[in-house]
Amino acid sequence: MGRVFSWEYFSFLNIDEAAAYKEILILPVLVVLLFFIWMKLVNNSKTDTSAKEGLDIRQAYEDALANEVGSGTELDSPDEAEEKDDTEKKDD
């Protein structure tokens, strides 16, 4: 029996060494197995996204302009004109 300090109980615990060795052998195998499963998932997601056609720089720029016009953040928006009028009235 091995003695291991436990911070949870703030004391030494007796642990069965046979169970500890089994755990030490199972954990690396489990990590390697999960690694290969994860890499397979990542590879499948890359092939799925590469099948889709991406945007070129011109299309991305046009989409950004269209979104800006639709969002009301363009330079000549009516909200900004009202803010300018309010500041001019305060200055007078």
How does this structure look, described?
- The chain is mostly helical and 92 residues long.
- The protein has one domain.
- Helix content is 70%, strand content 11%.
- The chain has a two-stranded antiparallel ribbon with strand order 1-2.
- The model has no long low-confidence stretch (mean pLDDT 76).
Mean pLDDT rating: 76
Shape: elongated
Order of helices and strands: EEHHH
Helical residues, percent: 55-70%
**In DSSP terms, counting alpha (H) and pi (I) runs of 4 or more, how many helices?**
3
Alpha carbon gyration radius: 32 Å
Query: How far is it from the N-terminal to the C-terminal residue, by CA?
Result: 89 Å
What count of structural domains? Answer: 1
Stretches with pLDDT under 50, minimum 5 residues: none
What oligomeric state do these chains adopt?
Answer: single chain
Overall strand count:
2
Strand content: 5-15%
Structural class: mainly alpha
Biggest beta-sheet profile: 2 strands, antiparallel
Strand order of the largest sheet: 1-2
Briefly say what this structure is.
This protein is mainly alpha-helical and 92 residues long. It is built from 3 helices and 2 strands, in the order ββααα.
SSE inventory with pairings:
Layout: E1 2-6, E2 11-15, H1 17-51, H2 57-71, H3 78-91
Features:
92 residues; mainly alpha; 3 helices; transmembrane; membrane; transmembrane helix
